[in-house]
Amino acid sequence: MFASIAIAGPETILTLGSLAALMLGTFTPKHRALVVTSLFAVAILGVAGFSLTDAPAGRSIAFDGLYVADDFSAYLKVIIMAAAAASVLLALPWLQERGAGRFEYPVLMLLAALGMAMMVSANDLLTLYVGLELAALPSYVLAAFSRADDRSAEAGLKYFVLGALASGMLLYGVTLVYGFAGSTQLDVIAQLVSAQAERSIGMLFGIVFILAGLAFKVSAVPFHMWTPDVYEGAPTPVAAFFSAAPKAAALGLMARVLVVAFPGKVAADWQQIIMFIAIASMVLGAVAAVAQTNVKRLLAYSSIANIGFALVGLSPGSPAGISALLFYVTVYVAMTLGSFLVVLQLRRPDGGTVETMADLAGLSKTQPKLALALAIFMFSLAGIPPLLGFWPKFAVFQAAIASGLLGLAIIGFIASVVAAFYYLRLIKIMYFDEPAVALASEGSPVNGALIAACALFCSPLGMLAMSPLAVATARAAAALFPA
Question: Is 93 contained in some domain?
Answer without folding.
Answer: no
